[in-house]
Amino acid sequence: MSFNDNALRIGTQPLSYSKLEVAKTCGYQFTKKYIERVKPVDLVSSSAAAVGTAVHLILELCLKKYMHATEMPDLAEISASVNTYFVEVTTLSPLSSSESDDISLLLGNTQTLLVRLLEYIITHKCKIFIEEELAVDQFLNPMSFGDPKAFFRGKIDLIIVAPSGAVTVVDHKTNRVNEYQTRESILAKHADQLRAYEILVFFGMAKKLRDEFGIDIKAIQTSLAYVVLADILRNPRPTNLTGLKTLNAEWFVDWVNKLSDRAVEGKVNRDRHCDWCGYKSLCGSKRGLKKKQKQIEV
């Protein structure tokens, strides 16, 4: 079980889930963005991304405020905190009127999620780690997030650690959902990301938890704090030690190898008629070719 030559080649600059997702979507975009370091030519800011960033920051600030609480704060106080941070966040990074409306509609859901998370954290006397930066080398040994020799790294929204060694990994999601999506399909869509985070937490954080807090990881459960649904979607079964050390580690190596091969090949995914990539006027996709033709005609 080892990473292949392509993975080690592109892993000289630390890999991450988001980078490998680019390779999965389009190897061409990965090559331009991360290997050739070509700047996008058609970069368009996303309204959804701006709203998502703001909601993430509000959750982060609220969790930091209550991370050492021993008693559950009342709902009025939590509501006031959410609204206060909403004003602070949108003052520092102003949003358009439509973006402000979108995030205003999500504030109630954000409060609901925050209450559920705090109830669990405080009831079970858990330690929490917010925006935790984790990294491992090619042998899955823990490394500093900023170490240029790190092979794979990631920043995790929330890690909840119970005294028993039960760990919950939470990723905040602000994506919209449609009527055809079920809890199971949403979890399946994000399965690779959650499994990669399991690996990062187990191999990148176990030593810290043992040395600093005397806690040994017994199992890890991954979940999505889905703001649009005001719900926490948990994977039905936590992954135990055996699964983390063997099955998940094997999956992780295979997953990284496959996507690294795709990244190095640099092929355009013509099956996706993408119109979001900043390199679309350079590639050979159908929409990219149409854009080139329009430029020629002009």
SSE diagram, text form:
Elements: H1 5-10, H2 17-25, H3 27-35, H4 47-66, H5 75-92, H6 97-123, E1 127-136, E2 142-143, E3 152-161, E4 166-173, H7 183-189, H8 191-213, E5 219-226, E6 231-234, E7 239-240, H9 241-265, H10 286-297
Parallel strand pairs: 4-5
Antiparallel strand pairs: 1-2, 1-3, 3-4, 5-6, 5-7
Write a structural description:
With 298 residues, this protein is of the alpha+beta class. The protein has two domains: 1-42 and 253-298, no CATH class; 43-252, Alpha-Beta Complex (Lambda Exonuclease, Chain A). The chain is 52% helix and 15% strand. It is built from ten helices and seven strands. Strands 1, 2, 3, 4, 5, 6 and 7 form a seven-stranded mixed β-sheet that branches. A hairpin with a 4-residue loop joins strand 5 (219-226) and strand 6 (231-234). The longest helix has 27 residues, at 97-123. Residues 291-298 have low confidence and may be disordered.
Quick rundown:
52% of the residues lie in helices and 15% in strands.
